[in-house]
Amino acid sequence: MERPRRVKGETTAIKTGCGNLYLTQSLPEEEYQEVFTRLGKCGGCALSFLDGIGRLITFLLNAGVEKEVIVHAFLGLRCPNPTWDGNKQVLSCLDGIAQILKGETNVVSESG
Fold first, then answer.
1. How is the chain split into domains, by residue range?
2. Block mean pLDDT (10 aa), the chain, length 112
3. pTM for the whole thing?
4. Pairing between strand 35-39 and 19-26?
5. DSSP-assigned letter for residue 3
6. What phi and psi values does residue 12 have, to the nearest 5 degrees?
7. Alpha-carbon gap, residue 50 to 37, rounded angstroms
8. Is the dihedral of CA 24, 75, 58, 62 positive or negative?
9. In the prediction, which pLDDT does 26 show?
10. Residue 98 has what pLDDT?
11. Phi then psi dihedrals of residue 100, to 5 deg
12. Other beta carbons within 10 Å of 50
């Protein structure tokens, strides 16, 4: 599926052991599904890893994989630096992505 010129989305933030993770995803009513991730002011390997994860999620969603399958694959994955985001424990960046995709965090902005 070709990406349209305009896709409406929302950005959600979650605190992880690596810093603040921001995930922007297209709104559910959009035909084309897309995910972008950013990790605070981080660069290097962590940034490229999360960029790749966002691209992979985008590919999977547009290939017909249900969001719940992706959530199930990432939810509960641990890293050496788990942390708390409010009253919710975040075990890793991938666990944080799963929590956002599952809708367990608050949206910080909408774009379109």
1. 9-111
2. 90 91 92 91 80 95 95 96 92 95 70 54
3. 0.81
4. antiparallel
5. P
6. -125, 140
7. 6
8. negative
9. 94
10. 96
11. -65, -50
12. 22
